[in-house]
Amino acid sequence: MLVEVSQGDRIALHIDEPEFANVQTPTVLLVHGLTGCHAAPYMIRFAHYFLSLGYRVCRMDMRGFGAAWAHSQNLSHAGRSDDCLVAMSTLAANTTGDLFAVGVSLGGNQLLRGIGRIGAGLDPQPSWMSRLSGVAAVCPPIDLKRCADNMDRRRMRLYNHYFIRALLRRPPKLVAQRADFQAIMRDRRPKTLRQLDEQFTAPLSGFDDALHYYRESSAIEQIGAIRTPTLIIASKDDPIVPYECFSQDTCALGNIARTDKLNILSPRAGGHVGFIGRDNRSWLESTIEMFFRTYLSFQTGSGSISSATGDP
């Protein structure tokens, strides 16, 4: 399903129904990270798990990714929280049950920023907000400048190369046709994500520069206004998103009381979206679903997922 968002762009929603689903069946939105899509292994894993427990599952493709690749004239970025809200509105329009959302990495920042802006009164409160029963963000880059500083280190050279190569190898079809994009592509290629944001993300998305993009798009400024039960999972050994983003001593998040509205789980190990247990399996799904179940009002059943690469 293609859904229109701002600037005439479209995102894609891939919806799987559990057996015996009805309008009261709880629904969970899954939002991928940078360079990912609905068919990323972790998205499939999450979808299988939640569907097997009776949740309706929606895997979202950001602008320019997955099934939305040919339908976006603009880039997706960390501040596109409005796209997540449009996805939630679309799901809410045809259901009456509990709503949940899981964002991974960049998608986590988008979700936190979106519900935080609503809580702060910066965006209007949608009619479905009272049904949003739980949100989870896995390794979200909530402080983009701090993350960029981390990626500037020499030891992060291979990570920078991986992300930049993946993003520029196959840019969104309509973005690649833009004259300003083509002009930037003739310049020297960026070597770090900060340079990528300075050369591409900021100017193509209406920001003055990378610092302006980081300031406007980081979720850290809105997290204190979140009113929905929220779980953040952040590893202390994450090479991409430094734990200092979440440390009580080093950032604004430390001034926010840990309550039933904001819970932070910080294991010693897990890397960036790893979190593999002693049995060689990821414990993310079960931990997040256990958190959601605390706020679940509807008894779930079971189901099976459709093809991961099916048409939108």
UniProtKB/TrEMBL annotation:
Boundaries of every Serine aminopeptidase S33 domain copy: 27-244
Hydrolase found in the keyword field: yes
InterPro entries: AB_hydrolase_1 (IPR000073), AB_hydrolase_4_sf (IPR050960), AB_hydrolase_fold (IPR029058), ABHD4 (IPR012020), Hydrolase_4 (IPR022742)
One MF annotation (Gene Ontology) recorded for this entry: monoacylglycerol lipase activity
Active site: S105, D238, H272
Keywords attached to this entry: Hydrolase
Gene3D superfamilies attached to this UniProt entry: alpha/beta hydrolase
Keyword Hydrolase appears in the UniProt entry: yes
PANTHER family: ABHYDROLASE DOMAIN-CONTAINING PROTEIN, ESTERASE YHET-RELATED
Family in the record: Belongs to the AB hydrolase superfamily. AB hydrolase 4 family.
Name used for this protein in its record: Putative hydrolase
Lineage summary: Bacteria, Pseudomonadati, Planctomycetota, Planctomycetia, Pirellulales
